[in-house]
Amino acid sequence: MKLKEFAARIGLSQTTVSRAMSGYPEVKPETRARVLEAAERLGYRPNISAQRLATGRAGAIGIVFQGGGRFGPHSSEFMGGLSTRLQKDGIDILVSTVETEADEAAAYRRLAASKRVDAVVVHTPKVADARIALLQKLGLPFVVHGRSEAERPFAFLDIDNFGAIATATEHLAGLGHRRIALINGDPANTYARDRDLGYRTALARRSLTADPALTGHGEFTDENGFRLMQGFLALPAPPTAVIAGSMMSALGAMRAIRIAGLAVGRDVSLIAHDDVFPYLSPENFVPPVTTTQSPIRSAGERIGDLVLRLLRGEAPKALQEIWPVDFRVRGSTGPAPG
Amino acid sequence: MKLKEFAARIGLSQTTVSRAMSGYPEVKPETRARVLEAAERLGYRPNISAQRLATGRAGAIGIVFQGGGRFGPHSSEFMGGLSTRLQKDGIDILVSTVETEADEAAAYRRLAASKRVDAVVVHTPKVADARIALLQKLGLPFVVHGRSEAERPFAFLDIDNFGAIATATEHLAGLGHRRIALINGDPANTYARDRDLGYRTALARRSLTADPALTGHGEFTDENGFRLMQGFLALPAPPTAVIAGSMMSALGAMRAIRIAGLAVGRDVSLIAHDDVFPYLSPENFVPPVTTTQSPIRSAGERIGDLVLRLLRGEAPKALQEIWPVDFRVRGSTGPAPG
Question: Which residue numbers delimit the HTH lacI-type domain (chains A, B) (predicted)?
Answer without folding.
Answer: 1-55
